[in-house]
Write a structure and sequence with these properties.
With 160 residues, the chain is mostly helical. The protein has eight helices and no strands. The relative contact order is 0.10.
């Protein structure tokens, strides 16, 4: 049985990066199952995997900043700050990068919540049950209660 050289890991990494931006932690997780682990359990291949990731980062092909920007751009029109922040953390993005992205997200969150609410419902809740349904929907999209109350309150004024 032939062992695959590190080049195959590099090729696989470049194929992933050609499709979309990945954070370092995401790419490491995708490549780890493909890394050949040697018989000696103390000297496993993840060290070589980390060297590969360092090289990709040094060359500018792997960037947590770009991965953050791409995810925020893709999700900001449909989801709230809480959900986007959660997804960024799941992808291994550092708290510093998340904190840097938050002001732009928070600035447009109320407008995004209104747009999402308008597309889904477009009419004011007629009773408490319907209001609870609309609130649960917006909450599931990652909007905070303060934003949800503002959306339903301003929608009350706009709809009257």
């Amino acid at each position: 049985m032939r062992k695959k050289p590190e080049l195959s890991l590099r090729t696989r990494a470049l194929q992933y990066l050609a499709r979309r931006e990945y954070s370092r932690a995401e790419l490491r997780g995708k490549l780890l199952p493909h890394a050949q682990i040697e018989d000696d359990f103390e000297q496993a291949q993840p060290v070589d995997l980390d060297k590969l990731l360092d090289d990709l980062t040094k060359r500018g092909w792997l960037s947590d900043e770009r991965a953050t920007t791409q995810l925020v751009h893709a999700k900001r029109g449909r989801y709230g700050t809480q959900r986007i922040t959660h997804e960024l953390r799941q992808r291994g993005i550092s708290d510093e990068l998340i904190d840097a992205a938050l002001p732009a997200l928070e600035a447009s969150e109320l407008e995004t919540a209104r747009d999402v609410w308008q597309r889904k419902f477009g009419h004011l809740p007629q009773d408490a049950k319907e209001k609870a349904k609309q609130m649960r929907f917006l909450q599931s999209r990652g909007f905070g209660f303060d934003v949800i109350f503002k959306v339903l309150r301003t929608s009350d004024v706009e709809g009257a």
